[in-house]
Amino acid sequence: MQEGLHMPENNGNTIGRLKESCVFIRSTESAGSGYLVAPQRIATAMHVVRNLQPGQPVTVTIGVDGPTVEATLLRSDPKTDAAVLGFQEELTVAALPVAKTLVRDVAWTGYGFPTLADKTGLPVGLPIDGRVMDARTRNDVGQSAVLLYSDQIAAGNASPLHGFSGGPIVVAGALVGHLTKHIGDADDKRRAAYGYVYACPIDEVVKLLDVEPLTVEITPSPIETRAESIPHLARDEYHVFVSYRSTDRAWAMSLVARLEGAGLRVFIDQRELKPGDYLAGQLESALNRSRSAVVLVSRDWLESPWCQQEANVLVKRAVEDAKFKLVPLRIADVSMPTFLDTRVWLDFNGSKPAEGPNLDRLLSALADLDPDRDPRAVRADAADVRVTDRFVAEIMTAAKGGERQILAVLDEWRKTESSDSAPLIKAAEVFNGKGLFESALEVLKQLEPTVRVRQLRAFALRKSGEVDEAIKMLEVLHREGVADPETGGLLAGCYKQRWIETDDRAFKQLAYRTYLQTYERFGDAFNGINTAAMALQCNDLPRMFQVAGQVRDALLTKDEATLPHWDLATLGETCLLLGKFDEAREWYGKAVAKAAGLHENIAMMRRQARLNLSALGKPSDLLDDLLTVPHVLAYFGHMTDADDRASPRFPQSEVSMVRKAIRDRVMKYGNLYGFGQAARGTDLIVLEELVSHRRGATVVLPIPEADFVAMSVGDQWKDRFYKVKATGRVQFCKPLRDTCPPDAELGRVLEEANREVQKRALEFARRLDETPIILAVWDRQQGDGPGGTADAIRLWQDDGFDVDVIDVGAV
User: Fold this and answer.
1) Which of 166, 565, 622, 764 could form a disulfide with 33 if both were Cys (CB 3.0 to 4.6 A apart)?
2) What rounded mean pLDDT belongs to the chain?
């Protein structure tokens, strides 16, 4: 290769050189871009010339106004999506030099022909540019690639991208690759809505050349983005102190997730003290260890004397310490108070979550970035916020589906190499809200242990039965002075669970005291109703009546139509504690109606009602007819016989009789939620019956779906498998194995699947305070090998469960 040149970043007219050396390629079936990479050699994406055979000619146009020549395909490589063409004509335009190395976070420029022709029939070129996100990675089909971001592509200026494929990408005037494909929009894979595209690395092209290109060293200046500019802090310091009113907690938590996702360490403050009270020692200490503060100004905030007092303290700190930054945020349609209006503030009125250009400005302000810094860095930071906004919104949309949809969005997000982890935080919140605690914990492992991450992890641990671990985490947060109703409520709830599990009165008193302290500090309904209920358990009846009345009166001032199901259930519980049983039934009924399908939430209402009723000397099941949850069904059984089965076990002729027996069980057991697999025969019959009765199920797949369908469903039942899946009532879990194992290992994998079904069924039953119902279709024989029906039955019987067996032979 030719050596010895050094390319500085400012290499003259980059766009001019690109226009001269970019090539428009048109064949009978496709069109795209290419570029001069060496004397009489053109490089492009292989898929642009996929219909060409070696030696077959194609017409190409060199440059925007350059000559047209006939080129032939010399070599191509489908593993890298690269191809090289040759031509005979001598040109006055030199090929672009090839960069020897490439690093991330540098600016790139590209060129291509997205419009096939204008009115004159000539190709129309378009320049694009952006930032190198990853200098060496693999794209979504496993090809070696460079990951790039472009504002223009994100904005749609280059959409559709057809025609850009094969276009050259240069850094500091030297070739680093050519465009091959993009990360597609979740709604339309043809659009690169996120602005992320892949390029084939130039060294993969060089491997295909039969002539030497000119190679150069490049020294581009890196784009110093906000992520690299956030200062490192001591372990006990915070980048930002967030102050807000309890009624604005949902908006505040969306802000905290975005601040922490961007790499800022956040102290969450939200407390309600009486006017004139001094800042608590832990709060003042946290403020002194914070480099900036954000105040969320709303109508409720303006009505809180404590919030006003705290804001005055923050203003005083900002006046006395020039390095301390105070940024007020208007989050409602109110006038900014005078003592804050003199400061630079940001308007988020009308923005339900924290997002958009003002979030970008806030992040830059809190990172103390120079407003006159490199415009490329400013654009890169704004792009990061836009992409993160989009992914957070898509996770919220995916939440209406299930676990697989959310995980699919996260897979797309990971491809962007974004340093902003807010989508992971949002996914963990959604998983916790849907009762998918194992998934939440898996996501949280990937995050720095910030305050919000630790709260979410403690919640998931508690709900997963790891109460002691949750207590340790929450007690540490408490000692650090984290002041919000969620931390206090979570910790009290853990103490309460420990009391219920162990009957240790010390935990009962701890739970009561922690709920009471949290309620007195914040005045929120959640900690209030729990304070009243624990007062009953501790025989503090005056406190019970006082707090239950306060919570009830506060909630009754709100518009009933706007109350979530938890507030409606809280009104039911206050009436229960106050002895208004008919009124309690009415409110609980409204709560159940609004929480339709949220089985675990209704189970929690029932669990608490039972505790209260027992303490009140009433039958604990007095409200069970109203607070109903599904019974948990674990199902398994034989597949229908394969055509080549030597001895019949479950012949196709017995399907209708087995179906009738299963239907009888489904009707007998009533409201059900199932756990099992989805093989032909027993599994699919059970699933069809559950779906036909408008009930749900979770399916465990031992191996990838395509392999499972081929091995355990078969052609005759395949349509039924996909029909069940399409109903939306059946949640398919991620397969236990990424690949199908050899036949010798298959039995062990099937045993794993049996254990996974049992684990999920038992955990769900525990959360609903139910005992699983076990249903099996079995011929009462030992079976063909490990992991079969006989093994599954032993698994449950060894744990002390009765199995309802439908004897396929007797049927």
Assistant:
1) 166
2) 88
Count helices and strands in the chain by DSSP H and E runs: 29, 26
Task: Judge contact between 143 and 81, C-beta under 8 A.
Answer: yes
pLDDT computed for residue 5 by the predictor: 44
Helix 599-615 / helix 565-577 crossing angle, nearest 10 deg: 10
Quote the pLDDT of residue 679: 95
Cα separations (Å) of 225 from 154, 193, 278, 367?
A: 18, 22, 40, 11
Q: What 8-state DSSP symbol labels residue 277?
A: P
**Residue 377 is encoded by which pair of tokens?**
């860095």
What are the two backbone dihedrals, phi and then psi, of residue 10, each rounded to the nearest 5 degrees?
Answer: -90, 95
Contact 522, 274 (CB under 8 A): no
Beta-carbon neighbour count of residue 481 at 10 Å?
17
Cis bond upstream, residue 630 (ω within 30): no
Please count the residues of the chain. Answer: 811
Phi, psi of 98 (to 5 degrees): -105, 130
**Average pLDDT of 534-542?**
97
- pLDDT digits over 8-52, tens only? 444 447 888 999 999 999 876 678 899 999 999 999 999 999 888
Per-residue burial over 686-704, b = 16 or more CB atoms within 10 Å of its CB, e = otherwise:
bbbbbbeeebbbbbbbbbb
Residues 6 or more apart whose Cβ sits within 8 Å of residue 519: 527, 528, 530, 531, 547
Among 270, 279, 254, 267, which residue's Cα sits nearest to residue 366? 267
Q: Which residues of 287-316 are buried (b: 16+ CB within 10 A; e: fewer)?
A: bebbbbbbbbbbebbeebebbebbbebbbe
Task: Give bridge partners of residue 347 from the DSSP assignment.
Answer: 330
Angle (nearest 5°) at CA 592 between 586 and 596 = 150
Structure tokens at 809: 């032979």
pLDDT at 186 over 60: no
341-376 pLDDT tens trace: 888 899 999 888 899 999 999 999 998 888 788 888
How confident is residue 191, by pLDDT bands cut at 50, 70 and 90? low
CA nearest to 764, candidates 666, 679, 672, 637 = 672
CA triple 727-731-735, angle to 5 deg:
125
For residue 656, what are its two tokens?
């209708």
- Amino acid in the structure at residue 797: Q
Outline where 399-436 has alpha helix (H). 403-415, 422-433
Report the alpha-carbon distance of residue 190 to residue 161 in Å, rounded.
8
- Work out the pLDDT band at 122, boundaries 50, 70, 90: low
For residue 126, give both structure tokens: 């378009």
